[in-house]
Amino acid sequence: MMRLSLLSVYVKNQDAAIEFYSKKLGFIVAEDMPFGAQRWVTLRLPDDEVVSLTLKVANTDEERALVGKQGGSQPFFGIVTDDCIREYRRMKDAGVKFHGEPKVQPYGTGVTLEDLYGNKIYMNQEPR
Predict the structure, then answer these.
(1) Which of 32, 52, 62, 92 could serve as 42's disulfide partner, Cβ 3.0–4.6 Å?
(2) b/e per residue, 13-32, with b = 16+ CB within 10 A?
């Protein structure tokens, strides 16, 4: 068996990223501990015991150039929700930047949002 378990997101500041992903997007901190000279931080969504995000401080010029641009012009990753409209309203009230409003498509109801650095994330609710 193989499955996806970890996705790395380069950030400028781990504390600011933890604050954004937890308070505004609803992630929970799974791990936050020293890791040699660095800090190992992982977050996950409350209903997902499998996939985590690790927030890595961008230390090199190459890594710093990726902050906020990890998916290019497309969403870097997607979030599945059981109520896109509810989560859109909650996140919008929390100050999250969205690219328009949720739209109903054949594959579900979804909308693109941005993290604190500009990485695009797609939030989708499966069709009922």
Answers:
(1) 52
(2) ebeebbebbeebbbbeeeee
